[in-house]
Amino acid sequence: MNISELLAGLQGQRDKTTARAGELRDQIDHLTAALAETEARLVDLATTRKIIAERIPPGAEPDPPETNTAYQAIVNAFNQHPGQAFRARELHELLGMPTDEATVNVTRSRLGRLVRQGFLTQPGRGRYQKRT
C-alpha cells in the first residue's frame, strides 16, 4: 500500500465519521427540543391542576396527593422560597434527596434546563433562584 492509498483511506474514514457526527448532532437537537416541549407540558399540567384545585369549594374532599416528579419537587421548593437562592446540594438537603455527587449533578442539569426555560435565574455561579 502506498501513501496515496493510505491517505485516501483515511479521508474516506474521516468523511464517514463526519457524516455520523452530523447525524448524531441532528438527533441531539431533535431530542433536546422534544424534551423541552415535554417539560413545558408538565409545568403547564401542574399549573392547570393547581388552578383547578384552587377552585374547589371549601370543605370538598381534595384528591389524594400526587407523587412528585423531581422537576415538580424542585419547582415546588422554589415556589415555597421565592426570594432564596439555592445551590444544587442545598436543594437536595432541603428536599431530603441523596447528596451523592452523581445525583446532585443530575439536579444541576435539571436546574440548567429550568434556567433555559425561564423558570429560574442564576444570580451567581452555581446558584439558582426563582425568576421574579
Automatic annotation (TrEMBL):
Query: Please, which domain of life does this record's source organism belong to?
Result: Bacteria
Q: Which organism is it from?
A: Streptomyces xiangluensis
UniProt name for this protein: Uncharacterized protein
